[in-house]
Amino acid sequence: GLVFILGSACFCTWLTRRFANEQKSQRSDLQRGIEHNEFVNYYQPIIENKTGEWIGAELLVRWHHPRHGLVLPMAFIPQAEETGQICALTLKMIENAANEKLAVMTMKKPFYISVNVTASMIANKAFVEPLIALIQQHQSLRHNFVLEFSERDSFANSDINELKQAMQRLRDVGVTWALDDFGTGYAGLSTLRELSFDIIKIDRSFVAGSATDSVTQSILSNMADMGRTLKCKLIAEGVELKEQAEQIDALGIPYSQGYYYAKPMPFSRFIAKFKIYSMQ
Ligand code: C2E
Ligand code: CA
Ligand code: CA
Ligand code: CA
Fold it and tell me: Where is the EAL domain (predicted)?
């Protein structure tokens, strides 16, 4: 019995240590990645349904890992959020975007870049202060810069008043706000009104049923009404099929994002496509 108890105690200690070591090494892996600029900005366009015009792009990070190759965000973003490394990572991405975006700025109309953040990042001075400095340093960020945070994780444990203040602070330097994954989380209508988002992105789970399911269609048409009432730009996320694109437009949702139009792509490919498109 005693041997068993001692044995499991040791096993538990071993497990805990192993787990702690793994976390520590992931942490330093991320750290090295940030320092060595292994994170690459991918861009996915936002499309105006009526005209097909590209009005902006969401910035989606990819990790060019020296050993694992191209790594998608869901494999490292949760860990980076847990350790707080997401702040340094996001600042670096925005700085890269600020430099990349200049090329886009020289071509015709205003074009916006949208970056993903969480409510806890916005509440963090160590993130917000350098972010404001970056915005003030780069002309390309000063007017057409959007921050989006997800309804999934952002409202459950944040104080709405604090969030509102933090958002205002960034509005003061020109930031526009988008609510991501709308329909999946906790934001009630009163929260939406209070935080007065400029953009609402309808979660792709609604878009999936948009061509076939009549209940989903009536939800989407109500969302379109709501968007008009709140004076928000509504974007349908995850548009993959022609039929979905057509339904979304018919239901009165003005903007779309999704594989049907374009996948996220590195800057060079984005700019090439964008050039072709804007010369038409
Ligand atoms: P999200 O913010 O909802 O981003 C949209 C995700 O949907 C992206 O996945 C995009 O590639 C994917 N997507 C776009 N169009 C379609 C479509 O038509 N069909 C389908 N099935 N998917 C589509 P990605 O790039 O893998 O990013 C996943 C999530 O990781 C993002 O979800 C976001 O929450 C997070 N993420 C990505 N980049 C960043 C970042 O730089 N910072 C932070 N904090 N989170 C990020
Ligand atoms: Ca997003
Ligand atoms: Ca999300
Ligand atoms: Ca989303």
Answer: 23-278
Q: In ligand 1, which atom is closest to the CA atom of 257?
A: 15
Between CA 189 and CA 57 the distance in angstroms is: 27
Predicted structure pTM score: 0.91
Cα separation, 26 vs 187, whole angstroms: 33
82-101 exposure pattern, b = at least 16 Cβ within 10 A, e = fewer: eeebbbbbbbbbbebbbebb
- Give per-residue pLDDT as tens, 154-188: 676 678 888 899 999 999 999 999 999 999 877 77
Cα–Cα distance measured from residue 187 to residue 137, given in angstroms and rounded to the nearest whole number: 33
Distance 233 CA to ligand 4 centre (A): 15
For ligand 3, the distance from its centroid to the CA atom of residue 104, given in whole angstroms, is 25
Query: Which residues hold their Cβ within 5 A of ligand 4, which is an ion?
Result: 180-181, 237
Interface pTM (ipTM) of the complex?
0.97
- Which residue among 44, 60, 93, 248 is best mutated to probe the pocket of ligand 1, counting the most ligand atoms within 8 A of its Cβ? 60
Q: How confident is the model at residue 89 (pLDDT cuts 50, 70, 90)?
A: very high
Q: How far is CA 240 from CA 175, 177, 209, 217, in A?
A: 29, 25, 11, 16
Compute the distance from residue 234 Cα to the ligand 4 centre, in Å: 12
